[in-house]
Structure formats: structure tokens, C-alpha cells
Specification:
The structure is a homodimer. In chain A, about 45% of the residues lie in helices and about 15% in strands. Chain A is globular, with a radius of gyration of 23 Å. Strand 4 of chain A pairs antiparallel with strand 4 of chain B.
């Protein structure tokens, strides 16, 4: 008799979870089953705190297979999806249950903002992890003991696997399938799903590099606003310090403290963000965009853009630009 | 009072539907609601033939909001997802209901193999449409009155909107949002979901260009097998005819009739398919791959590959290749 090599994947359900976080991985594993011999099939289970219908954030109503206490032993991968119900609501019952459940699992992980629930259960400490690009800072603040990475689609650190925004759960599950059963199977599944196996540039191309400019009246905030409003101009630390009526040294220190970036990093991010808007919304030539964003030359822009975004300006335009 | 501009999107649920087909569009519309003023929100409804729990192909159990007969008037977009339950099972109740439901809707459409249900309801006749790359031929055979396109992610033809494999439902829904509320909102939603707004190359990069080579013993099948097994060699119609022991003219005719491609189209597809395998599974230089696939030169390969696949060989390798 052939030894069974089933792997059990458990998905935790709760109200206001984001459905794509749930169904991305589930469909990856379920479509893998079409390609795997039966004794290697993934077993998919859904659990919820109370055995009732769960209402997801898009309104779809889902029925979990069982409640937390009925979960059988032997989980290979325990997954927590994200959504408003993950980052906006406390789930004391769930977060009390998670540490024990995780101990019984070979691996555990989260999709998107599901990482907030793992953090609330104290399960991110000492780990590298990621979450949706828009929630990275919040997760890092709430979990000072973990290192939240911002520029990857998913992060595997020992037995923890976390992923970025929403559809990143598909990428993450494909990585699990590739590890469990080889890259060819995973590639086959990716092609059935119509996704690529390797995304370029991590999450960076999706999120803005700068938060909205504060328009309050500190000297630093005024300089930030000036930079954004005059992004075509050349900037040096000295010039920015003059705009703030501060000494260069004091300005640089205060800026770094308030904004968490050096002044020149801030300028570069602002130039790149503005160039992205122009790449998205216009068909201006690169040369003109470079000039309007203060890059000096198209060549300089291309280099800075590619290093920071992980895509060339032309690739970015192809993926996010107009028709 | 401001006029309400709600749009009602109805998703039809049935057993063995593919969950990502359902949740891709639903989450696109639901995340759009975060960005739209309330009077413009999408209203999402799910219907099923019998008001019961529906079990999707990955095992997830979903509860529809109402049965077919309870659907209120005024649907803006009626959508049918795909999955084994769409192309493998007859749904006489559903296909009898669809034509009337579609008449009452501003627009209707399908995700992935959901097009089979529309076809069974007689709703594809006279339309251009698409489906999952792996099911294009089957759909075309079952619906001779429709023109099934193979190389796009989604196809909009008047009031019908259809989409390719699984995650293509996300692209399609983003196109609807862009049309309803402008490109900026759609781009914002794409970035939240971590998807791109415009995919390159349609569905072509995902599916193989050739079906599996028949290994039966007709002269044409033997030549096909020979080509695939000796793809590094040069081929002309004359040489292939000699291999089949037929006159060039007879061979070309018989080949086209049996294979539905000219002999030289077949050779080109076989060369490209083989080069894809080498791009996916090796880090051989382009020059070597071009040689092993009979392309003559890397330059020739690059040109033929880009024209047929919609991506350069390097882009293809970045998206589907190894680490």
C-alpha cells in the first residue's frame, strides 16, 4: 500500500473577511489536486469560531466546515485570511485559540491583513513577515517584535508564511505547492488560474512611496509640501534647509525624525511617485516626464525608477497606464 | 435629493462553481464601494436555482441570497461563473431561466467556463466571446453561431462581456468599473487587490500553442510527431511531404484538414512551445534555446516569439521561469 501524503490545509473564517484572501489559496490547492495523484491530494478544511454562517466583506455568505474546537489534529498549514474583520475587529476567542492551533501545525500563515490576527495572538514576534502594502506601518507599530517587510509578495520565515495584498495569497499558495510537489505542478496551476509564477517588483509598484503630504504648519511639513508642489525643481539638503529657515544639520536631523526618511530620499520618492502618475495617466514621452519630475534626464529617471519600483518606466506604463 | 446611481450586480451560484470566478468580480465591486460615494455603490446579489447551500469545486460552501424566481427587477450586470459545474453538468432550470433574466438586465456575462452555461441557454449566438484558454475549442464546437476568441483576457461585445481563465474575472470587473466610474477608481482598486490594470499578451502566454501530438499511425500524425521530436531541424513543406511520402500539394491539404493549421504554422507553434519549456525550466542563454528549437538565430526567435506570445522571451522567463 502506498503511503498517504495528504496535506491538510485549514482556513480560518470570520465575519468581514475578504473573500479573495480565502478563495485564492483554496482554489490553488484544489486545482493542484486535479494534477496530483489522489494519495497526495490537499485536504481543505474551513473553521470558524462559532458554527454559523460567516458573512464576508463583499456580502458573500460562507458556511464553515466546523468550529475551532472540532478541528482534528494534524494540520499541515493553518491560514488566516485578511479583510476589515481582521484588522478592524478584536477576536478574543480566535486569538486565544490560535497559539495552541499553531503549535499543532507544521506551518501557519496569513494572507494580506490576516497578519493582524496572528500579531494579536502574539505569533509574529521574532519573525520576518509581510502584509498588504497599505497596512505595513500599522502592523509594524502593533507588533514591534516582528520585522515587517514591505517589498515582497510573500515572506517565508521558518514555519511562518505571510503574504501581501489580497491576490498575493495566490502567489503564496503557489509557492507552497512548488515546495510540496515541485515547480512544474505549480506552474501548471498558475497557467490554469491565468496568473504568472513570478511577479516583478514585489508589492512596491502597487503602493505610493509617500504618504499624503501633511499640510499642517511645522517647518518640515511646509518643506514637504513645497517639494511636492515644485517637484520639477532641483533640491539639495542645503536648499531645503533654507526653505525651512534652519541650519542644514538641524534640518536634516529634524526631517529624518519627523518623516522617517532623509530629505533626499523624500525628494526621490516624490519624484518617482509623480512620474508614476504621469505614466499612468498620460502618454507623454519619458523625456518630458523626466523633466516634469525633476529627474534631469530620461536616463537618470529610468535608472532611479527601476531601482526603486522593480519595473522599468515602460513596464510600469504597460501594466498600469491608459489604453 | 441626489439621484441614486446604484448598479446591481447579480452573481449566479451553482454546485461545483469555481470560487475565484465568483469572488474575483465580487471583491472588485465591493472594494470599489470603499472609493465611491454611497449613492453610487454597487449592490451585490447572489442567486441560485434552489435556495440551499451551494458547494463550490474547492469545497467551500456558500449560501445564496435568494432563488432565481425571487430576483428583483433591474439588474445592471448578470454574471455566471465557471467551474466543473458549468462545463460538465447540464442545468436545465438555470438555462431555461437565463434568457428571460438576461432580457431584464442591462448587461450580462460570464467568467471563465461560465460561458458554457450562456451557450447552453442560447445566449452566445451572434456574439464575439471568450472563455478559459483550455476550453476555447470546446466552447466553439458547442456554439457554432458565436465567435470564440482565444487571445484576449476579456471580450466586450455590445451587452455581453466574457472573460478568460479564472482570475480574468478580476480584469473583466475592473474594466466594468473603469467604464462605470472612470479609470482612476479602477486603477485604485487594482492596486488594493495587487493586480495590474493591463495584462500583456492576453491569454496566449498561459496555454500551449499545440495540443498533445497524436501518436496514432496516420501519415500526418507521424509527421507531427517527427517535427516535435526533431524540432531543432529545419523544416519545409516539401521536406515534411517527403516524410509523409505524399506529394507536397496533397500533404499540405491533408495536413490543414486534419490539424487545422498549415504545416509551417504547426512547425512555428512547435518551436515556440519548446522554447517556452526551455525558458521555464532552464537558464540557458537565448542563443542556445533558439538553436535547440530550430530558430536559426536568437533574433529570429525573439521576433517570432514576441509576435505569437505577446511577451518577449525575457519577459516570459521573468514571469514563468525558475529562480
Amino acid at each position: 500500500m502506498r503511503e498517504s501524503a495528504h496535506k491538510t490545509v485549514v482556513m480560518v473564517l470570520f465575519n468581514d473577511m475578504l473573500m479573495l484572501d480565502v478563495t485564492g489559496p483554496m482554489d490553488v490547492f484544489s486545482i493542484s489536486n486535479r494534477l496530483l495523484p489522489e494519495h497526495q491530494h490537499y485536504r481543505l478544511l474551513t473553521v470558524s469560531e462559532h458554527q454559523t454562517l460567516v458573512r464576508s466583506s463583499c456580502g458573500l455568505k460562507v458556511q464553515a466546515d466546523m468550529t475551532l474546537k472540532d478541528l482534528p489534529a494534524g494540520t499541515d498549514l493553518l491560514l488566516v485570511p485578511g479583510g476589515p474583520g481582521a484588522y478592524g475587529v478584536a477576536h478574543p476567542g480566535l486569538t486565544a485559540w490560535l497559539p495552541t492551533a499553531v503549535k499543532g501545525a507544521r506551518r501557519f500563515g496569513a494572507i494580506c491583513t490576516g497578519a493582524f490576527l496572528l500579531g494579536d495572538a502574539g505569533l509574529l514576534d521574532g519573525y520576518r513577515c509581510t502584509t498588504h502594502w497599505n497596512y505595513v506601518e500599522r502592523l509594524a507599530q502593533r507588533n514591534p517584535g516582528s520585522r515587517v517587510e514591505t517589498e515582497q509578495i510573500y515572506v517565508i520565515d521558518r514555519n511562518l508564511i505571510t503574504s501581501g495584498g489580497i491576490t498575493a495569497g495566490i502567489d503564496m499558495a503557489l509557492a507552497v505547492v512548488a515546495e510540496d510537489h515541485g515547480k512544474d505542478i505549480a506552474l501548471e496551476v498558475a497557467k490554469v488560474l491565468l496568473v504568472v509564477m513570478k511577479r516583478q517588483g514585489g508589492q512596491t509598484p502597487y503602493g505610493p512611496l509617500l504618504a499624503a503630504v501633511p499640510r499642517d504648519d511645522t517647518a518640515i511639513a511646509r518643506v514637504q509640501a513645497y517639494i511636492v508642489d515644485h517637484i520639477e525643481e532641483p533640491f539639495t539638503v542645503q536648499r531645503m534647509a533654507e526653505l525651512a529657515a534652519m541650519s542644514t544639520r538641524n534640518f536634516a536631523r529634524a526631517f529624518q525624525r519627523e518623516v522617517n526618511l532623509t530629505p533626499m530620499q523624500y525628494v526621490l520618492n516624490a519624484r518617482i511617485d509623480h512620474s508614476r502618475k504621469l505614466l499612468e495617466g498620460s502618454d507623454l514621452p519619458l523625456k518630458v516626464i523626466a523633466c516634469r519630475c525633476g529627474f534631469g534626464s530620461a536616463r537618470h529617471m529610468r535608472k532611479a525608477f527601476s531601482e526603486r519600483i522593480g519595473l522599468t518606466p515602460n513596464q510600469y506604463r504597460q501594466q498600469f497606464g491608459g489604453d
